[in-house]
Amino acid sequence: MTLLLKLSGLIDRLNTMVGKSVCWLILLAVIVSSGNAVIRYAFNASSNAWLEVQWYLFSAVFLLAAGYTLLRNEHIRIDVLSSGLSQRAQAWIDILGGLFFLFPMAIMIMWLSIPIFVDSFVTMEHSSDAGGLIRWPAKLLIPVGFALLVLQGLSEIIKRAAFLSGHIDSYGAPAAGHHGGAKE
């Protein structure tokens, strides 16, 4: 279990780093959007490229921060049903939900999006709009974002299993009398 908890910690650090980094893209998206609006209304000029940059940035935040959102337990849940349950019952719900809902959905989307990205990259697909951008960077966000989500789902399942087996007291802290997250 020690090795799995170390893996979980690495995944948590990766998604924390990615999540905190892409948060800055929100500010950049606001600046691009504001600048685009000012230029459009003040100078009666616009560019499809700047409009596409906005949705690229939004897509990057949405997709790349999904794992971070799961790590922070900020995703949509069924708390109305599970809030009255014990922490052990909630851990089982999280494990089963991860195995039977999160993993199949995220792995399927990741797997199916890879050929779409590859085709876009190989053909150097561009937007059909005049002055539009190349599309493969946006399409790459899909498999990468879902890979980060799958990894975080694995980390969460490891933490729930460690909690259920008594290796940690809660989903993040080592159990009393234990060091490094593993039983002695």
From TrEMBL:
Keywords: Cell inner membrane, Cell membrane, Membrane, Transmembrane, Transmembrane helix, Transport
Record function comment: Part of the tripartite ATP-independent periplasmic (TRAP) transport system.
Compartments, record wording: Cell inner membrane
Name the record gives this protein: TRAP transporter small permease protein
A GO MF term: transmembrane transporter activity
Source organism (scientific name): Magnetospirillum gryphiswaldense (strain DSM 6361 / JCM 21280 / NBRC 15271 / MSR-1)
Family: Belongs to the TRAP transporter small permease family.
Subunit structure and binding partners: The complex comprises the extracytoplasmic solute receptor protein and the two transmembrane proteins.
